[in-house]
């Protein structure tokens, strides 16, 4: 069978759509539905296992698990030149050129990369890991160092890294962004598996500017809308979306989600829980899409530029959404959803959000063609990745 | 909790070998239960100085607990959502009115000195009289050690309730994971002194991330300290000393204070002499390595 598509990215420069299904990355021309080119993490995995010491303990789990090194994050640099992803088991970062999907470089980390941001006019990657540390790397290593898969150099320190973190939380880093310039300064905003949202000066990352206090659960999604550069939206395990003025730390508005998600009557006895797994902006409409992975509702909200005006809920639609990529024109976006039919294969949809936030599916034939072409073959259903990792972030106290 | 215990680092009083373990355990439990009831009753009481029965300080041997606690694990710890959500009147009842009272509207004193990983509280007790007009807070991750310090402070407050100065009302202890949640308790620039006395050494390289001073945590300490505020460190483990020096030295927000400064500073003397670990090292005639850093106004590269 074919593995579902777990991640999407859209390149606004060349208009191409990138799909990550299992270990495979495929580039589509979304105007024709034609597969243009593809790449697989097998290419670095092969490299890696060649000279790896056989580890007895690991052997058993590896046998059972075929999809070893799937993409867990995928983004496209704003200038459209690079596709950047991080992978599961090899804990690697990969940077591919969008011209020919050639590997610029990949790098293995001792701790799984869990958050990624591209900054400095597409020159720098910030990478947060499972232990809460954030590293800064050039998107392409400087001239002289050869491309290809690099393992850690011999200069690595005790923790297994050859570079020092620029800042860190003592909790799994879950999301990360760099703000636009505000009064001549930029900031990194980071969130973790506790409930911290932190504003750090960037690149002077030794100066923590403030915390945005108010969350009680993990914070999995951060967004600074491009039309409201001092606003921050954040969501995760809390039953509200937080709207902040991140330049002061003020919680401007708590956008309660329960009313829009609505616990199903049949599930009355189950506790109301939220797991926000995505926030995407549609700049031309000043609308954001928010996905709650528990209720499987994709919600649209109007976020006014002015913080004195409240956010407005617009509409909702049910999808078993795995990821979305906004294409940057006319309120259009691509979705990958979980296909619960017998085949369980990839299912891609194209939607259009109108001014009033209503979501409608469009170009169904084209989307179907892409769904049918997208392919990463797996032996059986058992090989499908855990596709809903967000709610696992909820903490269960140990003691 | 997965951290291995370090039997050599038995920093709890009493001699475990001399007690048959089953009855010893029962005794400790009984003792702790009665202290627990007492603590609940006395925690936020302002003592009026009429305590007639002889007040006893708590006994350390009843508060035995493994030496290490994993700072990465999700302990069921209580912490405020933000510093403004913290009710300090419960910790300093004689000095801070409860938030519901009318006096609470006027500005209240704030904690200025923090002892991170305070252990059994020796430093706190000395700081109480050294800085009678400042609020001092000890933070400790181990439950029973925290309870011991709580009982110790309650007893000291009671013992001095009749005296004129009403000492020890300005110190308190809190169970917290200081590596994760300090910014939930203190505002930016609230602290003037932070003590790191004989922190857990975490010898294995793989565990170095668990050390309480790292470059990334130093940024957090810089955030909590006001410009001119001081980080005090002391340890008997040379490797840990060098580690702390390296990470603070490299940090653009900190600058090391001179040996002369160390000699003239009374807190340095207190931290050498009055911490439980300091005393232990003294008895074993071990080395003590001190390094203190001032928090700069702006980063200096
Ligand atoms: C070796 S003892 C030193 C105690 C005391 N400062 C002294 O000098 O006597 C270190 C203490 O730090 C505590 N500790 C370790 N990690 C901590 C954390 N993350 N937050 C609070 N306390 C911690 C330990 O439980 C232990 O009591």
From TrEMBL, chain A:
Signal peptide: none annotated. SUPFAM superfamilies: Quinoprotein alcohol dehydrogenase-like. Pathway: tRNA modification; N(7)-methylguanine-tRNA biosynthesis. It comes from the Eukaryota. Its main location: nucleus. Gene3D superfamilies: YVTN repeat-like/Quinoprotein amine dehydrogenase (2.130.10.10). Coiled coil: none annotated. Keywords: Nucleus, Repeat, tRNA processing, WD repeat. It is found in: Nucleus. InterPro entries: Quinoprotein_ADH-like_sf, Trm82, WD40/YVTN_repeat-like_dom_sf. HAMAP family: TRM82. Belongs to the WD repeat TRM82 family. Required for the formation of N(7)-methylguanine at position 46 (m7G46) in tRNA. In the complex, it is required to stabilize and induce conformational changes of the catalytic subunit. This is Transfer RNA methyltransferase 82.
From TrEMBL, chain B:
Its EC number is 2.1.1.33. Forms a complex with TRM82. Catalyzes the formation of N(7)-methylguanine at position 46 (m7G46) in tRNA. Pathway: tRNA modification; N(7)-methylguanine-tRNA biosynthesis. This is tRNA (guanine-N(7)-)-methyltransferase. Belongs to the class I-like SAM-binding methyltransferase superfamily. TrmB family. It comes from Myxozyma melibiosi. Keywords: Methyltransferase, Nucleus, RNA-binding, S-adenosyl-L-methionine, Transferase, tRNA processing, tRNA-binding. InterPro entries: SAM-dependent_MTases_sf (IPR029063), Trm8_euk (IPR025763), tRNA_(Gua-N-7)_MeTrfase_Trmb (IPR003358). S-adenosyl-L-methionine binds at residues 117, 140-141, 177-178, 197, 275-277. GO terms for molecular function: methyltransferase activity. It comes from the Eukaryota. One of its GO terms (biological process) is methylation. Residues 1-45 are annotated as: Disordered. The active site is at 200. It catalyses: guanosine(46) in tRNA + S-adenosyl-L-methionine = N(7)-methylguanosine(46) in tRNA + S-adenosyl-L-homocysteine. The keyword tRNA processing applies. It holds the Pfam family Methyltransf_4. Its main location: nucleus. Residues 1-12 have a biased composition (Polar residues). It is found in: Nucleus.
């Amino acid at each position: 069978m074919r593995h579902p598509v777990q991640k999407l990215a859209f390149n606004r420069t060349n208009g191409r759509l990138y799909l990550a299904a299992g270990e495979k990355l495929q580039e589509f021309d979304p105007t024709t539905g034609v597969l243009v080119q593809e790449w697989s993490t097998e290419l670095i995995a092969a490299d890696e296992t060649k000279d790896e010491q056989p580890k007895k303990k690991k052997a058993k789990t590896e046998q059972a698990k075929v999809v070893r090194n799937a993409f867990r994050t995928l983004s496209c640099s704003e200038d459209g030149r690079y596709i950047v992803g991080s992978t599961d088991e090899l804990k690697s970062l990969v940077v591919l050129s969008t011209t020919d999907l050639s590997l610029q470089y990949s790098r293995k980390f001792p701790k799984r990369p869990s958050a990624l941001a591209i900054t400095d006019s597409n020159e720098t990657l910030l990478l947060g890991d499972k232990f809460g540390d954030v590293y800064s790397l050039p998107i392409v290593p400087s001239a002289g160092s050869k491309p290809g898969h690099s393992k850690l150099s011999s200069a690595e320190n005790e923790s297994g890294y050859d570079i020092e973190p620029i800042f860190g939380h003592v909790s799994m880093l879950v999301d990360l962004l760099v703000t636009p310039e505000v009064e001549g300064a930029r900031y990194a905003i980071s969130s973790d598996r506790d409930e911290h949202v932190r504003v750090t000066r960037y690149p002077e990352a030794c100066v923590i500017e403030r915390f945005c206090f108010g969350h009680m659960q993990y914070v999995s999604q951060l967004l600074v809308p491009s039309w409201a550069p001092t606003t921050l939206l954040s969501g995760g395990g809390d039953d509200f979306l937080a709207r902040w003025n991140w330049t002061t730390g003020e919680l401007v508005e708590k956008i309660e989600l329960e009313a829009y998600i609505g616990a199903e009557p049949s599930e009355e006895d189950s506790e109301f829980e939220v797991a926000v797994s995505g926030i995407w902006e549609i700049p031309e409409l000043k609308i954001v899409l928010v996905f709650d992975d528990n209720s499987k509702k994709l919600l649209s909200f109007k976020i006014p530029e002015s913080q004195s005006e409240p956010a407005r809920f617009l509409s909702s639609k049910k999808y078993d959404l795995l990821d979305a990529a906004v294409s940057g024109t006319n309120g259009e976006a691509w979705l990958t959803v979980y296909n619960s039919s017998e085949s369980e294969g990839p299912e891609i949809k194209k939607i259009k959000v109108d001014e009033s936030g209503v979501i409608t599916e469009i170009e169904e034939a084209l989307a179907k063609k892409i769904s049918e072409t997208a392919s990463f073959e797996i032996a059986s259903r058992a090989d499908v990745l855990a596709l809903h990792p967000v709610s696992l972030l909820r903490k269960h106290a140990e003691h | 909790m997965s951290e291995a215990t370090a039997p050599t680092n038995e920093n709890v009083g009493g001699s475990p070998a001399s007690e048959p373990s089953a009855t010893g355990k029962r005794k400790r439990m009984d003792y702790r239960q009665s202290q627990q009831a007492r603590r609940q009753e006395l925690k936020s009481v302002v003592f009026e100085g009429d305590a007639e029965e002889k007040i006893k300080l708590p006994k350390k041997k009843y508060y035995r607990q493994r030496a290490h606690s994993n700072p990465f694990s999700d302990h069921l710890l209580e912490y405020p959502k933000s510093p403004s959500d913290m009710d300090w009147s419960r910790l300093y009842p004689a000095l801070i009115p409860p938030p519901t009272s009318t006096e609470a509207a006027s500005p209240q004193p704030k904690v200025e000195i923090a002892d991170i990983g305070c252990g059994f509280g020796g430093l706190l007790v000395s700081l109480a009289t050294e800085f009678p007009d400042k609020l001092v807070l000890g933070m400790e991750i181990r439950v029973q050690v925290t309870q011991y310090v709580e009982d110790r402070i309650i007893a000291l407050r009671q013992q001095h309730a009749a005296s004129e100065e009403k000492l020890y009302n300005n110190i308190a202890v809190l169970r917290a994971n200081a590596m994760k949640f300090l910014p939930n308790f203190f505002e930016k620039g609230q602290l003037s002194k932070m003590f790191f006395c004989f922190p857990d050494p975490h010898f294995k390289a793989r565990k170095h991330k668990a050390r309480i001073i790292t470059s990334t945590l130093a940024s957090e300490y810089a955030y909590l300290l006001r410009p001119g505020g001081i980080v005090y460190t002391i340890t008997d483990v040379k490797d840990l000393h060098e580690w702390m020096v390296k990470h603070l030295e490299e940090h653009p927000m900190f600058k090391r204070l001179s040996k002369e400064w160390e000699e003239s500073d009374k807190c340095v003397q207190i931290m050498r002499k009055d911490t439980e670990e300091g005393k232990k090292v003294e008895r074993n005639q071990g080395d003590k390595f001190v390094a203190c850093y001032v928090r700069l106004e702006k980063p200096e590269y």
